[in-house]
């Protein structure tokens, strides 16, 4: 019996990293009967078969979390990487990434990369938009080598998913975190390569200072049609902070009078950008619920 973690799964075969090495494993038939599918990220107990030197997954430890896309269990955090410039930061998209992490119950960390491309005032402004969310923010640059140590500290001993649009510097950052990863820089996005290898399997990459990185373009889908109007505010930490003081219990912080959230926006306690994005998502939900 050996303990390990599933780092890759291909066609019913699972690669399990243990203290004694990497083993190709099959899942015990019992799992299939119970309709349990082992996931990358699962902590498992395996038994080795001397004859074919394969392992069998005998037990799967209870999962702390399950991310659907990419399919990984036990993810501790998602590092949402956006460039402050080139490409221009689409904060509306960033907010969607944050929404998804909140929904999946996975701690988001915002990483603003390419800070060498803007001046300090601009950086302060963009950081300020997220100040009241309470999310950890890490400013980085791979050109000026800034923030890499901070990033490493956050990644240590955790399972982290890197998410964010292409071209923001995810691969560059990871290469600085651990040079032997040798990820290709400036790779065209997965989508444009259609035809070649469209289905990339999810894989955990081990960090030599402890921890795991999920090698994937991140959340592949930013569909938010799973959101309900009533729960939306619960995914905006800074809105939750004030919504209890609205006059109406079911206040959506839109056109309602005596709204504590709108007051907080007026007093700069909630950033206008975040509030506007909240309204945009709210309207989107209202629209698709109508059909
Ligand atoms: N100015 C600047 N450019 C960067 C920085 N990090 C990455 N880049 C550049 O941004 C481009 C995209 O980087 P890449 O790591 O492939 O982005 P990915 O698509 O998110 O993995 C490359 O041309 C990198 O050289 C940075 O901190 N500052
Ligand atoms: Mg890349
Ligand atoms: Zn309100």
Segments where pLDDT lies below 50 for 5+ residues? 192-199
Mean pLDDT equals: 90
Approximately what portion of the residues adopt beta-strand conformation?
15-25%
What would you call the structural class? alpha/beta
Task: Kindly report the oligomeric state of this protein.
Answer: single chain
Count of individual beta strands: 13
**CATH H level of the largest domain: which superfamily?**
P-loop containing nucleotide triphosphate hydrolases
CATH topology of the largest domain: Rossmann fold
What are its keywords?
291 residues; single chain; Ribonucleotide Reductase Protein R1, domain 1; alpha/beta; binds guanosine-5'-diphosphate; 3 domains; six-stranded mixed sheet; binds magnesium ion; OB fold (Dihydrolipoamide Acetyltransferase, E2P); binds zinc ion; Rossmann fold; 13 strands; five-stranded mixed beta barrel; 8 helices
Tell me what you see in this structure.
With 291 residues, this protein is α/β, with parallel strands linked by helices. The chain folds into three domains: 2-61, OB fold (Dihydrolipoamide Acetyltransferase, E2P), CATH 2.40.50.140; 67-215, P-loop containing nucleotide triphosphate hydrolases (Rossmann fold, 3-Layer(aba) Sandwich); 229-289, Ribonucleotide Reductase Protein R1, domain 1. The protein contains eight helices and 13 strands. The chain has helices spanning 29-33, 91-103, 120-131, 148-155, 170-177, 237-243, 260-266, 272-289; strands at residues 2-10, 13-18, 21-27, 43-49, 54-60, 66-67, 72-73, 77-83, 107-113, 136-139, 159-163, 203-206, 212-215. The strands form three sheets. Strands 10-9-8-11-13-12 form a six-stranded mixed sheet, with helices on both faces. A five-stranded mixed beta barrel has the order 1-2-3-5-4. It is globular, with a radius of gyration of 21 Å. Mean pLDDT is 90; it is low at 192-199. Residues 243, 246, 251, 253, 256, 259-261 line the site of zinc ion.
